[in-house]
Structure formats: structure tokens, C-alpha cells
Structures
1.
Amino acid sequence: MKIWKNTPKDSILVALSLAQFGVTLALAITWNTNSLPARAAGGALLTVMMTYNIIVISHLFTHVPWFVSNRLNAVMSLVNSVNIGQSVQAYQLTHVRNHHRFNNDRQGPDGTTRDTSSTYRKGKNGQHQPLMAYALGGAVDSVVGRAKDVASTTRLWSVGRGEERLLSLASHREGRRARELRQIQADRAAHCLSLVVFATLSWQWTVMCYLPAFFAALTLVNVQNYYRHYGANPEDRAADSVSHYSRVYNFLTFNDGYHQEHHLNPGSHWSQMPAVSSRHQDRLGAQPRVVSPVPAIVGFLYRSRPLLHQAGTAGTPDPHRDTPTAI
């Protein structure tokens, strides 16, 4: 019987997901007996695991699920919803069906962007929003959203009528739509019940470690997304995002650095990204685009980054005046 939808290599991602789940429980269990340095190290580890899962593991899963079996995929969605503190199915809808449809677009005549995660959404004069406002503001919005998820216990965590964004992104095919909305409900239930378990094991760990680590991870993920698009040309489908081709980084992150290629072929499996790059070599080389020498999460280090998004926006301010050089 075939288990893997694409390749057994995805078993590594499954193992990392299960390992994170186990380590998180261990951190909660041992909090009260750990020394202060061990607690600090545990908090840093939790932040890194959450950040990595959102950027790499769950991101890959939302585009190309790992298993042939829908039930196994549903189980992995539950596990990683606990790991990242939010519904993976909801992440799939907002990321794949919104971000990858509108590709970090600029504000339109209505003064907003169609991509709700666009770095231009709250920017001015055709520029990206300043980094810290985007990263921290986005994290606050996410925390508020997750708090609302937790508060939806009265309807058993189902998607409410007022959640127009999710409802609009869910499939219009009746059977598939029902499955997606049920999965969001199950993901939320798993996350909320995990919070109960964490608080039972150690409410101090939950308040002083888990919640700060969650907020820090959301902030870092926003920094990553910011520099995946900062300076790119949103009007050019072959230059609307930023790639990073370090072999070490791409080995450790399952080819996450091939972001422009990912935008061109978001349904391609992570193992195919180098082939996608080769296939689009002529197109990618036909116009200026931003290729970063550093990973996006430390993109602020690339000070000489081309600002292709400023083309045709003469008179606009230099975004570096509003963007901090450090985080």
C-alpha cells in the first residue's frame, strides 16, 4: 500500500513534527525543576521550533500534503496545529488561496491590497510598510485572532458566520468545503485542548515561556515574509519575490530559499525546486530581480539590496529611512 503522496523523504518532515510535539511536552513537564539558564534555553528552543515549523514544515504541508491518505494528512494537520499554535488548515486557506493568488500586491484604487499579508498593505506612497510595524503589528493581529479561536468554545471552535475571510477562501465545492471547515474546527480544538494540557502541566511555563515564545515566533515569521518580498517588483511575476541559493540553508530548510521559483510553481514539491529553477532559467534571467546573499529571516543584513519596487514611483521616500537596520 502506498503511503507517501510524493516521496518517502517527507518522512523527515513527519519526524520533525513529532519531535517538536514531544520536546514541547518535555519542556512543559520539566519547567518547575529546571534552572533559570535551562528555562531560558528552553524558551529559545521553543521559539526556534515554532518559527521553523511555520516557515518550513507547515508551509510545505499546506502546499503539498505528505500522505496519500486524507486521514493521515488530517492527523498531521492536528499535530502541527498544536506545534504552531494555530490551525494548519486555516493557514493553508489564507496562504495558498490568498497570498499565492495575489502575490504581495500593491494597494489598489480602494487603498488596500488583495493579499492580506502583503508588505504594502499598510505602506505609504507605494512603499513597503516599515519592518517593525509589519512584524510586530502582524504578530499582535495573529495573537488576537488566536484568542478569538480559543474563545469560540461555545460553538466548539467551528468557523463562525462572522469569519468572512475564511468562509470566502474555503472551497466552493460542497464536499470539499465541508471537509476544510471541519478540519479548521478540529485543528482549533486540538490547539485549545493542548493549551489546557500545557496549563495543567505547568501554568507558569505556559504563561512565562509558551506564550512569549509564540509571540516571538510570529514576529520572526513576519520578518521572514517581509524580506522574502522587500525590494522585489510586484508587477513582474518572475521578479515579485526574493530567492536565496545557499546550499547549506536550502539543505536545512528543504529548499525554502527558492522563493521566486516557489511563487512561479507553488504546487511543486520541495524536492523539485532546483529543477523548477532550471526550467525557468531564461525567464528568471530576462529581467532584474532580487537574489539575496543571506536568508530572508536576516534580510536586514543585505544593505545593498536592489529596490525594484521603486520603479515608476519617483518622489517616494527611501524605505530604509523607516526600516530599522537591526531587530
2.
Amino acid sequence: MPPAKKRARTYDSVKIRAAVTAQFGQLREAVRTLSPEQLAGPTRLGDWTVRDLIAHTGMALGAVSRFIDRPAPARQEVTALDWPFATAADAAGIDDASRRLAEDNPDLDAYLAAIDRRFTADLAEHLGTRLLATGTGPMPLSDYLVTRTVELIVHTDDLNDAVPGLEVPYERQALAACTRLLADALAAKAPGGATEVRIPPYAVVQCIEGPRHTRGTPPNVVETDPLTWIRLATGRLTWTEAVEKAQVGASGERADLSGLLPLMG
């Protein structure tokens, strides 16, 4: 008997809107404290500076308004779960655009404030059902906002790594949505029920083909914390590094995820 088809995860649209707004607000507050020397400092993202990283993060949220400016598509074709697998194709263009924005906006606070104002106005005007012609394909605004939690959490973590002691907070609902979307992406990439991946307190998914566990302790278990999972899924941390640093626990012959990570390029 084939396994039951998994139901797509749903997100509370009101909470996601509030989470995206809150995370961006925390990022803006942190940016105001940075010195010119810190803004010119390196990041773990190749040769991007902190200024480039911040410009890109603003661009990621500003994409909501850019897509709202486009005519609404006739029908939905993709969901938030399709987005993680489509990002690598746009990497070169995103890199160039981020650098240009960093050069064209010396006042980062004003740049982020303008994005925030427009984003807030657009959310007030449009329902979550409004279809957007995103780079991944037509999807509802509510789905696209879930992808923005990934952008904001991942780049907040990048910023915290680049500026020791900055410690920008991670908004709980944004962190939860980011963790869940990337966990579901793993399950979509490697469908099956042989391995259980636990990311407490936010997500548990089953993946990888093989004998399906039905009760008791699964024979193959991976467990880690949300930020470690996000770093693994986005290539900030390798599987080998995480295991060696005891940041991930893995038991069972099908508990090695190294061949499936990262999920996003």
C-alpha cells in the first residue's frame, strides 16, 4: 500500500506578515549602529562586504513591492516550497544588483526606511491571495512572504557572523517559518520515510527512500537546532563541519545528509 500523500504545510498569514515586519525592523535598528569600518568589513559570502549584504537584504524585502507593481498573473503555478530550488539560477544577477544598490545608496538607513514604508503600505492594501509574478513563478503574496522569512533570517545570521557582538535578534515566528520551509524542501528533494529529521522546536520531517518507520524510535534520526539547520541548508556550514563540532546528531545508516545539502545555492 503506497504511503499517504503528505499535505502541504500551511502558515498563518497574519503571523508571517508580523514576523517579516518585525525581523526587518530589528535589522534596521542594528544597521544604524554600524560604523563605516564595520560596513566595509568582510562577510562569509565571498567578497561581499557588510554594506553589500545589507543592500541585498533590503532588495530581498523590496522584491515584494516590485512584484506587486507588476500585473497580477492569471493563475498560481508555484508555491513557497518551489522557491528554495530556484534561487541558484539567479545568483549572478542578484550579486550584481546587490553591489549596485550598495554603491547607489550610501545612506543605508534611508534606503531601508524607504523599502520598509513601501512594504508596509503594500501589505495594508493587498490580501495574501494577491498573485505575484515572482522570479520562481506566479504565487500568492502569502506564500512569497514565507520565502522572505528565509531571506531575512539567513541574512540576519550572516550579519551577526560578520560583526561580532552585534547579536541582531531572530524573531521567533520568522525563525520557525524559515526552519519549516527548508525542512520541507529537504523532504521534497528526497521523498521517503526512512529518515526522520528533527529540528526542535519547529520542525520534524521524514525523508529518504527505504524502510518506513511506523512506531517507536526511528532507525535513522538526524537532530539539530534551527540555526545549524538553516546554515546547513543554505551552504553556510558543511555536514562534515557540523558533525565534527557536535552541532548535529546523526544515527543510523541513512542518517548522512551530506549528499543532499545544501538545498539552496
3.
Amino acid sequence: MTTITKHPPAAAHKAPQRSNRGRGTVKLRDLKVALLFILPAMIGLVAFSLVPTIRGIYLSFTEYSILGEPKWVGLDNYTAIFKDELFWNAMAVTIQYVAINIVFQTVIALGLALLMHRVAKSTFVRGALLLPFLVANVIVALLWFWMLDYQIGIVNEIISWMGLPRIAFFGSEQWAIPTIAFVNVWRHMGYTALLIFAGLQAIPQHVYEVASLDGASPTRTFWSITMPLLRPVLALVLVVTVIGSFQVFDTVAVTTGGGPVNATRVIQMYIYQKAFGESDFGYASALSVILFLILALVAFVQMKFLKGNESDLD
């Protein structure tokens, strides 16, 4: 009888594993490459945003003319601001402009976005809506300044042809701010509509199909489905447009220069006049810091109450 001796199997060869040291080297190399790519943007951010911001905050506590050295005055500039009637007038004018601009721009942009989503799905139409936004704001302001001119403007010519009295759009205290708001609404509504349109595209189609099967009307669908699911996008749009509206300057500078009788002197125009018209850079810096704090507070409140970081799709 032959005895078969069983030998123990050879040790299985282990698959080679990548060492942690090698992985760390790869990650470090990727980090260096990433930093190299973002370095130009970081240099620009530090040189043109961070450093001027820090210097502006410092100058807000000084009395400074460009011809001399800054003189530390503490909180004197901020104390003077709260007693400055022109500052409060500028804030009132700015808030009036922001209210008109935000309401009309958001409503019109939402309507255009719904039309693009339901009716006009042509890429050409979407591009045409964006064209005014691609034109420089100064050019748009000049265009409407001449079209709305009291004497030779085509709009007033049409009004006169209809037998109605001409309107001093930029020369009237009553009409100046609404007119400036209209010009900026015309320029920005296409861009805002495209942002909202992108939000509409993200809403799942099956949600509308279920609502249709349940017999929901288009109005009920809009208020119960579209608006709640658009909340994050609308929150973003409102934050961006409110911040941009508070910083309106070029349209006012080109058309009215702050007149008539301070009727269009918004806060940015007032800062500019204090800095470059009166060479009071310390006071202008304090005004800028106040505006920055106001915008930060407004953005925080909007995101908090609109719940911009939440979605009903979750």
C-alpha cells in the first residue's frame, strides 16, 4: 500500500499594496499643482480685495486726505455719520431704488423663465434675453438717457404724438429713481431669468406628472410645487440682486449725477462724492464700512428666513 504524503501548500503570495507613504506623496504633489493653478487668483484676491479692504477699515478710523498722512480720530467718523442728514437721505433713496428694482426685476424674470420653460425653448431666444446684460452698464445708461430725453428722446416724441404731456424722466424728482430702476431692470432681467430657468430645469418632471394626475390646476401647481422647489434659487437670486442694487453707481453717474436736488444721490454716489469730490477719504471709508455691514446683515437675514440652503426635494 502506497502512502501519499501531503505537503503543506506553498504560502500564498500577497498582492502588493501601495504604501501610505506613496499615497501621501501623490496627495502632496496634487496639492502643489492645485495651489499653483489658484495662485494667480489668490494674488489678485489679496492685492485687489483683501489689502484694500483692510486699509479701508483702517482709514475709516482716521481723518485722511490724499495730500497728507492719516490722522487717527477713533470713532469720530462713525459718530458723524449717524448725525449726517445727507447720509440718511442717501440711504432712503437707495432703499427706494432697491425696492423698485427687486420687485420688478424678480417678477419679470420669473415670468420670462416660466415662458422659456413652457413655451420658448429655443437657444436663440435665451441668448437674445441675455444680450442686454452683455452690454456695458454705462452704454445702456447712455442709450436710455438719450431715448428718454425730454426734448429729443424718441420715447417723449411718441408720448407727444399721442397727445400726452412730455415727461422729464431723469429731470423730475418723482420720476428719476423709478426711471433709473427701469433701466437696470431692463439690463439685468434676462440674466436673472436664466438663473431662475436653471432652477426650473432642476425640478423633476415626474412631480408635475403626479400633480396632473391628481387634477391640480396650473395655478395650484405653480404655488404648491414650482415656488417651493424654486426657493433655494430664488434665495440666491434675491441675495445677488439686493447686494447689486445697493451698489448702484454707474447708471446714476451717467444720467443724473445724483440730482435733481439729491433725488438720486444713492449711497455709492455719496461715498464717491465724499472721497473724490471733497477728498475726505476717512469719512468715505467709514461710509463704505457701514454699507458693507448693512449688506452682510441683509444677506444673512435673507438666507436665514428664505432657507436658501434647504430644498424641498431632499
4.
Amino acid sequence: MPHTQPGRLGSSNGCDAVADPALSAFAAELPRLADGQSRAPWSWRRGQVTAVLALLCTTVLLLHRRIPDGPGRPARLVESFLPWMGAAVLSLLLIALVRRSATALVAVLLPAVTWVSLFGGTLADKRGTGGDLTVVSHNVGDADPDPAGRALAASGADVLGLEELTDANVPAYERVLADAYPYHHVVGTVGLWSRRPLRDVRPVPIMAWTRALGATVETPKGPVVVFVAHLPSVRVRPAEGFTTNWRDHAVVRLADAVHRAPERRRILMGDFNGSLDDRGLTPVTSVMRSAQQVAGAGFGFTWPAALPVVRIDHVFTQGVDPVAAWTLPRTGSDHRPVAASVNL
């Protein structure tokens, strides 16, 4: 066995290697690492950038409605993904802990508390059981080669509201849903299928072509007006930014039609191409309740279906009490179906 001199490392081939000074230094540090003595102490001087970013997050959370809605609609984009500010806050918290910055840690508490006050209730499970009427809304996707009719029928809903119907896929839905839903009407690209009789079915003119309809559903506890709508799409374009004009105009017309409905009990469902925090949906959200917000569990993101990051499909109610709301499993569409049960 080769002789190993002090301060040197022996090698299998008999050659001597000079000891690594860094290794020796690390060995000397081991006792201090074990005692936590090598950590930098908490400081009020570090973390000013993190603190500024935390204050910016707080400002956005509290005052997002006051962000100017200028060209490109940047405020709408921020509002659509507002719940994800929680991820930014968590990242800042980790930075504050790693850097052991007292300044940053205190600053991050502000957006953390603000986020919890805004969205903490949404995370709670508020779903109950029962309900006099269950509805399901689904943008079925005009390019879906495998219509989701059977999955929707298996949901047990009393009323189905379908969006993005076409001449090609309507016959498939009519065939699959005929036994469970003897009453149905299709107007333009939207349709209603119901276990209960429908009357006063009429298109709702929210835009140049028909993408909304209303009908009265006869239930054992009296009539309920049900609307299904598919608002114009929102696009992000380099030259124009976040384009919402068509959708915003359609929301106003839709809210007016709901307001003029003869029955006091109203349900509005569909693809709104906007989140609850989007100021463009205020004509609806200011007078109707989101079933998911009242009786759901979590944010219930619906789009894109493969990995949902935003909820743009909704069930709104007025004059009825949501009991439970949930998101159904993915179908072949790029949206996930949403469901809600209500007491009449």
C-alpha cells in the first residue's frame, strides 16, 4: 500500500496528489455548519428590491380595478390571471427567507394577507348536497371529433347548456341525449337540453350572429328562466394587445336581456371568455352571483382543458340559492364543463 504523507491524499496507482485546500476548508467548516453558525444573520439592510416588488403586488391586488384600461387592455390581462398573484407572493416569500431579509419578510406579509383576504374564501370547500335543479354548461368545441354527449348525460344534470354547436355535431348530440333529455332547442351555435318542459324559447341578440338563447324551464317548484351564452372570443395580438371590445358590448346586451326576463328566478351559464375579476363582466357580476364562488371549492379553472389556468366558463344565479358547484372531468373540448345545483 502506498505511503500517504501528512497533508496528501493517497491514490490507487501509487501517485501522490496534492490535497485540495477547499476540501480542508470545508472540513473545518463542518462543526459551524452543524451549529448553524455559518448562516448570515437576519438583516434589515438586505432585500429592498424584494420589498418593493411585494408592495407592487399589494398595489395590484388592491387597486387592479384602477389600472388604466388603455390601448391593449393590459388591465384586463392582469385581472384575468389575478389569482396567480399568489404564486408571485409565494416566490417573494421564499426569496425573503433564503436571503434572511427582515425588510423583505415584513413587506411580503402585506400582499400575502391581501391575497388571503381576496381569495382565501374561494379555496374553502363550500359545496353542499341536494338541490332542486342541476345545470351543466359546456363549450363542446366545434372541432371535437368525439362529442361529449354521453359524459354530459352521465352527469345527471336536469338542464344542459351547450356552446359552440355546429351543423356537423348537433345531430350527434341530439341522438345521444334524446332519451335522457326529451326537450331541447338549438338556436345558432348554442342549445338547451332539458329533462323538464321548455317554453318561451327565444334567441338573445348579443351580436351579429346568434350565440345566446333564453328559455323558461318548468319545474315542480315553478318556472325558472335559463340562459345559455357564448360571448365573443378574446385574443392577445401583438399589434392590438388584449382585444375585448366585442365581448364587452355583448355582455351589456346579455345583462339587459337577463334583467328583462319575466321570471324572478334566473340562471345564466356559458362560455364568457373572461374571469370573475375581469371588469368587462361587471354588467353581469354586479347583479348575479357566481355559483362557484358561493358554493364551490377552489377556483374551478376551466381553460385550457389540458392544464386549466383560468375560469372563463361560469354559472351565474339570481333569485335562487346555489347549493354546490364543481368542474366536470375533461372531455375532447379545450374547455372543461361546469356544473351547479341550486335550491329554488
